[in-house]
């Protein structure tokens, strides 16, 4: 286990200690203030010198938020990255309780601050870092604070993201990925298909290392992101859009749009929306489509084409004719840019080929669970530009 924190200090902008919590009794506030004074005396600001410092046998780690510094100090060999993350989590918790973290809000809430520091760290080891969990036994209002004490969790078994005692009549897991409605304190084991191993160069390196064994975790309650990955291979647009703009006279223009699905026939895109720009002086639209419906939106100078169901390997057309109120030359551009925005969803389809082989739920009460797995590909930020 990494070394423990000796003390946690909150300092003002000049390095004077506002609040301190002594966990192990081997570093004093005077030592921390002396170290910080040395930093302030050096050229440049404090941040430019890095978030980790060493002085007279003590390692200091600190971050700044507004007009205060949050600092830990230790005489042991600590995991610096872990403690810096803890300080950022501490900022999030203070902001949750006080709306904003600054010197004034700390001075107004000394009692609450000490209660939070006692619950978030036990004998120098980080414990609870989620505000939602802390509010279950530290409750505050504008005038007073009520505290319900509970025994601290064992340092090696702390799970800050899930409360004990959760109960559901029906225990369900939805892999979207992922939503859980499970009672108690379950352990989940997730296995993915072996194909991912063959495509591992396209995902983050840590994912490649984990795929030789199931992913084991205790889930938070409700919705959360279990994992992310990235493909390095080029992926062609699943719905390709191209357009042809023709001016028939100085006062009339026609736009022909072709949309083509570039995935296999067994899949179908749903709720497809294609938004394309039209001239700002366009009026009297005459719109025809081979599938779906299209609407002219004059407030945004756009045409919105909606297709409820778009099977794979299909092609649909839209033609729109507009009158132009302005008298312009034939060479004048019809729009400043032709930028198509495309939205869609494709159920039961994954670009990467990742699939769930199994999901095991282990909970001491032995209840039965209902796992639901859904694959869906969404467009995200998807734009096509016509050159």
Automatic annotation (TrEMBL):
GO CC, alphabetical: clathrin adaptor complex; clathrin-coated vesicle membrane
Keyword Translocase: no
Pfam families, per database record: Adap_comp_sub, Clat_adaptor_s
Location of this chain's protein in the cell: Cytoplasmic vesicle, Clathrin-coated vesicle membrane
Recorded superkingdom: Eukaryota
Keywords, sorted A to Z: Cytoplasmic vesicle, Membrane, Protein transport, Transport
Domain MHD, chain residue ranges per copy: 144-385
First-listed, main subcellular location of the protein, grouped into a coarse class: membrane
One GO BP annotation of this record: vesicle-mediated transport
Similarity comment text for this entry: Belongs to the adaptor complexes medium subunit family.
Subunit-level organization: Adaptor protein complex 1 (AP-1) is a heterotetramer composed of two large adaptins (gamma-type subunit and beta-type subunit), a medium adaptin (mu-type subunit) and a small adaptin (sigma-type subunit).
Name assigned to this protein: MHD domain-containing protein
Organism field: Nyssa sinensis
